[in-house]
Amino acid sequence: MPIATSNFLVPNFTIVFELIAFLIVLGVIGWFVLPILDKMLTERQEQIRSELEAADKAKEDAEEADTERRRALEDARSQAREIIAQATTTADQIVTGSEARAQEEYERIVRSADAEVAVARQTAVDEVTSKVGVIVLAAAERVVGREIRASDHQDLIDEAIAAVRSESEAGAPAGGTR
Amino acid sequence: MSGAGTLVARPLLANISVGDHVLVRFLGFNLDADLLWSTGVAAVVTIVLGLWARARATSGVPGKFQLCWEITVTATQKQVESSIGPRGAKIVPLALTLFVFILVGNLFGIVGLGATYDVLLPPAADINLPLALALFVIVLVHIASVRSRGIVGYVKHYLAQPFPIFLFPFNLFINVVEELAKPITLALRLFGNLLSGGLMLALLAYLVNWRLGIVPVGGILFIVFDPVWKLFDLLIGVIQAFIFALLTILYFDTAMSDVH
Questions:
Q1: How far off is chain A from B156, nearest CA to CA, in Å?
Q2: Which of A20, B24, B73, B109 would you label with B5, given CA atoms 20 to 30 Å apart?
Q3: In this predicted model, what pLDDT tens digit does every residue of A41-82 receive, in sequence order?
């Protein structure tokens, strides 16, 4: 093909075909490409917006649930504190009542024991007392070498018994109840 | 790159020149066959990329390819929205297509080894494509201005500013010069940057023939600087495509604004 030199600043008829080529490209891009890309962009923006709204809603729900959880936790703590306080009071009451009952029981047992001790001592004293006269007479018979009649020496027996009594009373613990 | 056609056909030691094209005759007119070829390839590539994006488009998680398109579309929409407002929504396809189409064409500059071996010159490296795009944009800008301001407002815009209305001849002169300068500057900015980038690649390719004795100094310099310049050229291509689309939006903004 021929080579021609021309003024490079002066256009020729090629400019028409250049323009036609551009118009074809403009038509394809403007009618077939750009609307689709624009539609995809719009759809994606809409999708992102709805997802953001959903995320905001989920965040609000989560915050609400967290608030509810904190409130429930605080209620539970409050209830726990009340229960502990109530239990402490009840325990104190139980301990106090138990101590009182134990003290009463203790005192009752002590009193009962004292009474039994007193009865036993009295019984022992009575037994000793009843036998002292015989023993005294037997001892005296052996000392004097003859029979002694109780009726004749009643004064002596009574003295011995009184002595035993006084000794037994003197041997009893101080306070008399123990 | 203007002149790539010449360099394809000429030997390596040929002089570097611009404005040379492979010509074909069509309906009695001369057409630059090399420019039509590269423009056609750029158009097909842009359309294929667009239709591929359309076929793979999803409203779910986008792939990298769709993401690139969506970033470009979103950036264009935001730029139009911030400059013109909701009224400018119809400008988005034009600005987007301008950016992608010019960008694809500009990337041809990094294909091949430069100049002599290039089979695809960047279409914007010739005045025809930038001027066609600039004229098309400016015509649409004026149509938008008339639709936005009405005929009276449109005419008044050229007569009543920047000076008071009684100085309308000066106002008209200044505004007409400004309006004529718009497509020319818009076209020449893109064309000049791409042309100079191509010329630099041609110069680098020309260096290959420079030897000092048996040492291929030019070849070494070519190997070092050609990739560097192509990276730089790639950046220039992206920037110029962006500037063209941005200026288009700003021209529409000026034309559709209520403030004169």
A1: 31
A2: A20
A3: 999 999 999 999 999 999 999 999 999 999 999 999 999 999
Determine whether A22 is exposed, middle or buried from the number of CB atoms within 10 Å of its CB (0-12, 13-18, 19+): buried
**Measured distance CA(B96)–CA(A27) in Å, rounded:** 12
At residue B152, φ and ψ (nearest 5 deg) are -65, -50
- pLDDT classification of B55: cutoffs 50, 70, 90: very high
CA–CA separation, B235 and B237 (whole Å): 5
Note whether A164 and A132 are within 8 A (CB): yes
Distance CA B83, CA B29 (A): 41
Among the partner-chain residues A3, A12, A38, the one whose CB lies closest to the CB of B73 is A38
Distance CA B53, CA B182 (A): 33
What are the chain A neighbours of B46 within 8 Å (beta carbons)? Answer: 25, 29
Residue B238 DSSP SS3: helix
Which of A14, A31, A39 should one mutate to test binding to chain B, selecting the residue with the greatest count of B CBs within 10 A? A14
Asked whether B131 and B122 are in contact (CB, 8 A), the reply is no
Of B30, B40, B96, the CB nearest to A12: B30
Q: Hey, where are the domains in chain B? A: 4-256
